[in-house]
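Q: Joint fold for the lines below.
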Amino acid sequence: MGPKGKKIFKIATACVAVAVLIVAIVIMVRGAGLSKDLDFGAGAYYYADIPEFEKYVGGESNPTSIPYIVYVLLFLAWGALMYALWKWIDRH
Amino acid sequence: MVITLAAATSVCGTSAAIATGAAAKCKKDDLSIAISISIIFTILMMVFEPMIIRACGMNQLMGGALIGGTVDSTGAVVLAGNALGPEAEQAAVLVKSIQNILIGFIAFFVAIFFATRVENSGAQKVGAGEIWKRFPKFIIGFFVASLLASFLFQPVFGGDQVSAINKVLDQYKNWCFVLAFTSIGLDTNFKEIAKQMQGGKVLWLYIVGQIFNIALTLFAVWFLLSGVVFKVPVLDLFK
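A: Joint structure:
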C-alpha cells in the first residue's frame, strides 16, 4: 500500500472507530434495544440471564425423531473435521 | 490476538475470548482489545440486526437463529431475539446455547494447537501436563454445572426449584462478573493497547470476520430452516 493508500486507510479506520463508539454510547445512554419485560440491570448490554432457562435443559423440550446421541456424534464429528481443516490451513 | 478475536466473534464474546486467550497464552492487552471490540459491536448488532431482519421480511425462526449465531454475547442475543418476537427469542437462545457448549471444546483444541504447533517446532514432545496448564479451569466448572443441571437437578427437583437456586446464585454471579471486568480494567494499559491496535488492523479484522460470520450463518439458516431443503422445525418450548 502506498503513502496515499495508508493515509486513506488511517482516516477510514478513525472514522469507523469514532462512529462506532458514538453510536454505542448513544444506544446505551438512551437504553435502546432493552426490554421492560427483561430487566437485566446494569449489565444488560454485555451479560444477562436466559429467561426460563430451566425449560431449555428439561428433557422434554425439543423432542426429535432421531436419538440425541446422533446429534452429539454429529457435533463431535463436525468439530474433528474443523480441527483437521484448521491444521491443513496452518500447514499451507 | 487473532484466535481470541475469532473465538469472541464465533462463540460467545467475552467468555470465549477469556477461555481461548488463556489457552493460547495471549497478552493481557490483546484480551482487553478483543473484549472491548466484541462488547462495543455487540451493542450495535443487538439494536440494528433485528431492525434489518424485520426490514428484510425474514420470519421469526430464521431471524432468531441468525441472531443467535451472529450476536456475540448471550444477554444481547436474548434481547435482540425478544425484539423480533417469542419464537425468534427461543430460536436465538437455542442456537446461542449450542454455541456456548463449544467454549470447552474450542479452549481444549486451542490449547493443543498452540502447545504443539504454534509454540513448538515439532522437535519436542508436548505432554498432557502442558495442555492441562493452558486449559482454562473454569470450563470444567461450567461443564460439571451443565451436567448437574441437565441430568440431576432438573429431573430430581424440577424446573421451579432450579429456577429458585438460580435466583440465589444470580447475586453472586453478578458480583463475580463485576469483579472480573474490574480486574481486566486494572490490567489494561491504554498505551500498550494503542500499540497493539496496529494502526486499526485489529478493528478491520473484527469487521471482516464478523461479515464472514454473518454470511456463513445466513447460508446455514437458509439451508436448515427455510424449508427449501429440510422440513421447517416447530419450536414448542413455551407451549
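Q: Anything notable?
A: The two ends of chain B are 44 Å apart (CA to CA). Chain B touches chain A through 48 residues (CB under 8 Å).
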